[in-house]
């Protein structure tokens, strides 16, 4: 597909309401799989429309390398929901990269739901360097029962040989 | 307690750790727990086997919690009548209204204490506390 | 005796991998299957020369050399034979076709697609099943198409010659009725049945190859989507959607689910089977 398909896809996506056609546009973006095509899908993860958010997120999952280019920025977004969704996008990265980005996020994160989303992915990707970060997080949220549980599980999973 | 009389709960949440957390809350109370990670899988499992309660999160890939609820309530009885407890990280009235409109029986805001979840589950399943 | 060099798997390691596989494929590994699953994982650790579980898991996540596919294969039976998963064939004759013909007149066509069809067991099974079990089989013009990406299996399918193992679920009466026995302990599908199935080479993720196949009432797409990556699954699902008539049905393999693939289809339950449906067209 020619690179200048992107303006057309961008415009089409902004107008489209039929799910089947919207899926097709997102798939076309995923097929291009460039940071620019990921950038077209990205605004929709902020959408009030849940199905649009989901469609955008699924498209980004289908182009992990392209989405990765935007991750550092997304993980610092002022909107907690965006940071939360960004954690899930990070899952598709190589383990070391995901763990590094998510550990950095957790260290500065004040929203427990975002921490939870990061820990969920770290339980899969994390390594020994993730452990102190998890412990510090537990200390920052002593009254959150789910975080305490999640950190324990993530700790056990990562800590295994 | 025989297998037949044990209540069955379907936990629907994208996060494995959340499902594990709920399982740890519900199994010791005698519930049988099954899992799904989005609304499509949730519907499939509800259509195939009987459940006494579904606990579903609002935000999930492929099919979110509200769409799941709307689709479920449009199916035929008895599946369409199953009690559904919606969970969300949002406490706003907009989300609560949307859930109620879609057919939720109750709405809990995360983080949810394990005892709280088990108590509500018992209430919706009709178990004595 | 020398100690086994391969590492054992801890509970946490097992759960880490089980969660990964569940997310990816929907396969659930209960405690009862634990030992069996661990054996398979250890085999893959050895096969990939991984020095530890952690190294293997990193390798698995990386997507290098299709390790996820190898691991899934370790848990699935990939044999093809006649009347495999016949509860879906029963669903076809009992439920799906009844729905499809509600808006059809006698003589109208019914199009059924088997993709991938491999060496033909599935499309021929559909033909035989309908002849044996669907009372309205003569009332409609039934077209069965079998497609695959591999031309060698398609050639074999067109030839229609099968060994004993492929026929193991068929009764002697069925074999006698639809096959003729050759000298070499193999059986060939009778000519007019063989000619009633059309075979075509199609790559499921190439829209320009799927589109010309036209739209179908029912599609069987079993045990292939589970192996595709996220992007390919999206494309395949959209192609399958486009190849279905509104209200048409698609059946996946019994361990597969649209929940890992696409939100485009409605979830339906018929006689204990989950079947997916392209939504009916809304009337103006």
Kindly describe this structure.
- Chain A has helices at 5-15, 19-32, 35-41, 50-61, 64-68, 71-74, 80-90, 95-108, 112-125, 130-140, 145-159.
- By secondary structure, chain A is mostly helical.
- The model of chain A has no long low-confidence stretch (mean pLDDT 92).
- With 129 residues, chain B is α/β, with parallel strands linked by helices.
- Chain B has a five-stranded parallel beta sheet, sandwiched between helices.
- Chain C has a seven-stranded mixed beta sheet with strand order 6-2-1-7-8-10-9. Chain C has a three-stranded antiparallel beta sheet with strand order 3-5-4.
- Chain C is globular, with a radius of gyration of 21 Å.
- Classes of the chains: A mainly alpha (161), B alpha/beta (129), C alpha/beta (284).
- Chains A and C meet through helix 2, helix 4, helix 9 and helix 11 of A and helix 1, helix 3 and helix 11 of C.
Summarize the structure.
Chain B is 40% helix and 19% strand. Chain B is of the alpha/beta class. With 284 residues, chain C is of the alpha/beta class.
Derived from helix and strand composition plus strand pairing, the structural class of chain B reads alpha/beta
Specify which chain pair forms the largest interface.
A-C, 27 and 23 residues
Question: How are the strands of the biggest sheet of chain C laid out side by side?
Answer: 6-2-1-7-8-10-9
Q: Which regions of chain C contain 5 or more consecutive residues with pLDDT less than 50?
A: none
The percentage helix of chain C is: 40-55%
Taken from the alpha-carbon principal axes, the silhouette of chain C is globular
**What's the N-to-C terminus distance of chain C?**
77 Å
Oligomer: heterotrimer
Question: Helices and strands in order, then pairings?
Answer:
The complex is a heterotrimer of chains A (161), B (129) and C (284).
Chain A: H1 5-15, H2 19-32, H3 35-41, H4 50-61, H5 64-68, H6 71-74, H7 80-90, H8 95-108, H9 112-125, H10 130-140, H11 145-159
Helix pairs in contact in A: 1-2, 2-3, 2-4, 7-9, 8-9, 8-10, 9-11, 10-11
Chain B: E1 8-12, H1 16-26, E2 32-36, H2 39-48, E3 53-57, H3 65-73, E4 84-88, H4 93-102, E5 106-109, H5 114-125
Parallel strand pairs in B: 1-2, 1-3, 3-4, 4-5
Helix pairs in contact in B: 1-5, 2-3
Chain C: H1 11-25, H2 34-47, H3 53-62, H4 67-75, H5 86-101, E1 109-114, H6 121-133, E2 141-148, H7 151-159, E3 161-163, H8 172-178, E4 179-181, E5 186-189, H9 191-194, E6 197-201, H10 207-210, E7 216-221, H11 230-242, E8 244-252, E9 266-270, E10 273-277
Helix pairs in contact in C: 2-4
């Amino acid at each position: 597909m020619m690179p200048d398909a992107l303006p057309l896809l961008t415009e089409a996506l902004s107008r489209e309401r039929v799910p089947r056609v919207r899926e097709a546009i997102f798939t076309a973006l995923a097929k291009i799989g460039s940071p620019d095509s990921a950038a077209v899908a990205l605004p929709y993860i902020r959408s009030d429309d849940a199905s649009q958010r989901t469609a955008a997120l699924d498209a980004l999952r289908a182009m992990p390398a392209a989405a990765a280019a935007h991750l550092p920025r997304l993980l610092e977004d002022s909107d907690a929901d965006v940071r939360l969704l960004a954690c899930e996008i990070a899952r598709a990265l190589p383990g070391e990269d995901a763990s590094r980005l998510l550990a950095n996020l957790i260290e500065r994160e004040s929203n427990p739901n975002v921490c939870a989303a990061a820990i969920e992915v770290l339980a899969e990707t994390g390594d020994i360097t993730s452990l102190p970060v998890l412990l510090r997080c537990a200390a920052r949220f002593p009254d959150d029962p789910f975080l305490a549980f999640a950190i324990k599980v993530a700790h056990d999973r990562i800590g295994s040989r | 307690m025989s297998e037949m009389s044990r209540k069955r709960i379907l936990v629907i949440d994208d996060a494995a750790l959340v499902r594990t957390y709920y399982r740890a809350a519900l199994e010791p109370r005698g519930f049988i727990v099954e899992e799904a990670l989005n609304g499509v899988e949730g519907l499939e499992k509800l259509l195939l086997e009987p459940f006494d309660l579904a606990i579903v999160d609002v935000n999930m890939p492929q099919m979110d919690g509200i769409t799941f609820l709307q689709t479920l309530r449009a199916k035929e009885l008895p599946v369409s009548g199953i009690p559904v407890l919606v969970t969300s990280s949002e406490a706003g009235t907009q989300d609560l209204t949307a859930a109620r409109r879609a057919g939720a029986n109750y709405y809990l805001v995360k983080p949810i204490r394990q005892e709280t979840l088990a108590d509500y589950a018992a209430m919706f399943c009709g178990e004595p506390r | 005796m020398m100690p086994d060099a391969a590492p054992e798997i801890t509970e946490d390691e097992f759960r880490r991998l089980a969660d990964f596989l569940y997310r990816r494929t929907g396969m659930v590994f209960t405690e009862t299957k634990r030992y069996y699953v661990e054996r398979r994982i250890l085999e893959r650790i050895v096969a990939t020369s991984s020095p530890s579980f952690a190294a293997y898991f990193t390798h698995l996540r990386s997507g290098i050399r299709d390790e996820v596919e190898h691991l899934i294969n370790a848990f699935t039976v990939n044999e093809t034979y006649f009347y495999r998963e016949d509860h879906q064939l029963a669903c076809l004759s009992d439920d799906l076709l009844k729905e499809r013909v509600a808006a059809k007149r006698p003589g109208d066509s019914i199009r059924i697609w088997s993709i991938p069809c491999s060496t033909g067991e599935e499309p021929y099974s559909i033909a035989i099943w309908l002849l044996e079990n669907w009372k309205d089989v003569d009332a409609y013009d039934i077209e069965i198409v079998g497609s695959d990406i591999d031309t060698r299996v398609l050639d074999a399918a067109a030839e229609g010659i099968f060994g004993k193992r492929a026929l193991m679920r068929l009764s002697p009466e069925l074999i006698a009725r639809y096959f003729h026995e050759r000298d070499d302990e193999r059986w060939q599908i009778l000519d007019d049945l063989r000619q009633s199935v059309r075979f075509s080479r199609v790559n499921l993720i190439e829209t320009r190859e799927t589109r010309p196949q036209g739209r179908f009432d029912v599609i069987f797409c079993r045990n292939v989507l589970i192996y595709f990556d996220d992007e390919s699954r999206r494309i395949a699902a959209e192609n399958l959607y486009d190849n279905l008539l509104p209200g048409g049905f698609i059946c996946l393999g019994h361990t597969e689910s649209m929940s890992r693939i696409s939100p485009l289809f409605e979830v339906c339950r018929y006689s204990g089977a989950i079947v997916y449906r392209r939504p009916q067209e809304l009337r103006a």
